[in-house]
Amino acid sequence: MNTWQRFRDSYFFYSFKRDPVAIVSSAVFFFLVAIAFLAPVVAPFDPYDTATIDILDAEIPPSWMEGGEDRFWLGTDIQGRDLLSTMLYGLRTSVIIGLGAVIFQAVVGILVGLTSGYLGGKIDSFLMRVADIQFSIPYLIVAIIASAIFQLAFGVGRFEELAMPLLILIIGMSEWPKYARTVRASVLGERKKEYVEAARVIGLNRRLIMFRHILPNTMTPVLVISTIQVAQAVMSEAALSFLGLGMPITKPSLGSLINAGFEYVFSGSWWITFFPGLLLVTFTLVIILFGDWMRDVLNPKLYKG
Amino acid sequence: MFAFIVRRIIQSIIVMLVISFIGFSVQHNIGDPVRDMVGISVSVAEREAIRDELGLNDPFWVQYGRFVRNALHGDLGTSYFHSKPALDVILSKAPATLELVFGSSVIILVFTFPVGIYSALRPRSWFSRFVMGASTVGVAVPVFLTAIALIYVFGVELNWLPAYGRGETVNVHGWESGLLTMDGIQHLILPSISLSSIMLPLYIRLIRSEMMEVLETDYIKFAWAKGLHRKRIWLVHAFKNTLLPVVTVFGVEIGILFAFTLLTETVFQWQGMGFMFLEAVERSDTALLVAYLVVVGAMFVVINTLVDIVYGFINPMVRVTGAK
């Protein structure tokens, strides 16, 4: 109760209440995440259950168009799956990969940044060089080449089975330097402060100081970049799947749905690409808007038009 | 300065060794070159003989040394599908990708400066508000959706521009150029627009915020006080000083543009390096994939080293922090 009270009186909550963009975007975000995770309950069909799919139902337009059927509100895709259900399951896949990749890269980046910033010296310059080097190659190239290598190494069949954990690993590995740099920068700011010296004087060990004392104070910038990173990870996943290096069409994410539909756009079946695309854009847009708002509130110094 | 350059070059050599090591491990562990060369009817003993002859039974480090030596001589292996040296295949595809990057850079430079400056000077006008709103949405739209939408509208529905391929190309000293024919340029328009769409929003925002910041500085206030003409203040005094950060960022972002050519080339079936790479993945053409990895790695290392050295000349702070 006390924490809740403190949260309600905080500046964070105060500015949230007064910002319609933040309210709407976070509402849409939580709504989408909720229906994504509840997909097995709310979706009218189960796109993974091959028994209910009939190839004769393929490419039925949305229900309000000519030739549409009431069963399939947004129409069906090329395999005869209900598009709405497939999109919900696809969104769930995208969300899991996005969040998973961000958690992965945050853990790696925070460990590296904390070690690097607190210990300094040779370890610091080595780790930061590695981060610099990886940073200098665009994350998308790293991710694409890594998934291509994994696909060749495992073979397409095995890759498709393991696609979800592999994508989390690939996207996580290609983005960790951003966290490492952010955390290191704020650790350097905290390291010389009195509370850290006090902790050292009373003889706490290094690990305790690093994780219990310094780490909580570096969390604000981590929180700020995390929202943008989720959007970034969702888009990377979509890009990889669109290239055929991500989720297979049997377990589609939004990207692979767009990829499967895009050849059919020109023969008139625009809805297979349009609705997943719209959902993807909406989802990333609300994350970006919410992230922008959070950056402005938590870090007014950074604010630039 | 000399020490800085030397250190930077040593570092890039180490990076290239790491990249080539990754590439070699991929080649070493995936695929069997003997199987690619001979049919099923060849006996095990004969296969062993070929393996010995090719040096595939040598220790890992010996083979890696040979790989690096060959790579330094420009031999990155032979593409299984094209039956040509992998480097030649990549180089024959490079012009298409470079022209695509060039086309979108032109679009970025032509559009972002006027729009960015205008929205910095008139932040309250409806046009600036519209641009800022559109650029927020623009960041969230993936490049392949932009590309599909452009093809659908301009290629299919309106039928104004060609939607696929490079069109007619002219061979200029081995460089297959699409820039010299009307047809080639028409084919370039849609892919360039889609590729530039990832950078337009970021760039407009960057130029706008840099310009707004400069307009607040004392020397601009002084210029107003001096009674200079506003065009002179905006374009000569303010604009010039927004250029440096913008140009620096552009040097870095061109690498990101390159990364996104993979997506653009896939949608438009643009016969460039990215399209070739994805085909190589589909065909399990390991040699070509490894060659691509090494070439792209080398490209980024060279670009980054040059950019850093140029920065070192422009900005002494880089040298000092790099020296510690």
Provide a descriptive summary of the structure in words.
The complex is a heterodimer of chains A (305) and B (324). Chain A has 13 helices and no strands. Helices cover 72% and strands 0% of the residues of chain A. In chain A, helix 5 packs antiparallel against helix 6. Chain A is globular and about 75 Å long. Chain A has 305 residues and is mainly α. Chain A has one domain: Orthogonal Bundle (MetI-like fold), CATH 1.10.3720. With 324 residues, chain B is an all-alpha fold. Chain B has 14 helices and two strands, in the order H-H-H-H-H-H-H-E-E-H-H-H-H-H-H-H. A two-stranded antiparallel sheet of chain B has the order 1-2. In chain B, helix 5 packs antiparallel against helix 6 (126-140). Chain B is globular. The model of chain B has no long low-confidence stretch (mean pLDDT 81).
- Quick one: biggest sheet of chain A? none
**What is the radius of gyration of chain A computed over CA atoms, rounded to a whole number of angstroms?**
23 Å
Fraction of residues in H or I helices of chain B: over 70%
Runs of chain A in which pLDDT lies below 50 for 5 or more consecutive residues are none
From the alpha carbons, calculate the radius of gyration of chain B and give it in angstroms: 25 Å
Q: What is the helix tally of chain A?
A: 13
Cα distance spanning the termini of chain A: 37 Å
Give the number of domains of chain A.
1
Element-level helix/strand string of chain A:
HHHHHHHHHHHHH
Strand order of the largest sheet of chain B: 1-2
How many separate helices of chain B? Answer: 14
Which pair of protein chains has the largest interface, and what are the residue counts? A-B, 39 and 48 residues
The coarse overall form of chain B would be globular
Which structural class matches the secondary elements of chain A? Answer: mainly alpha
Beta content of chain B: under 5%
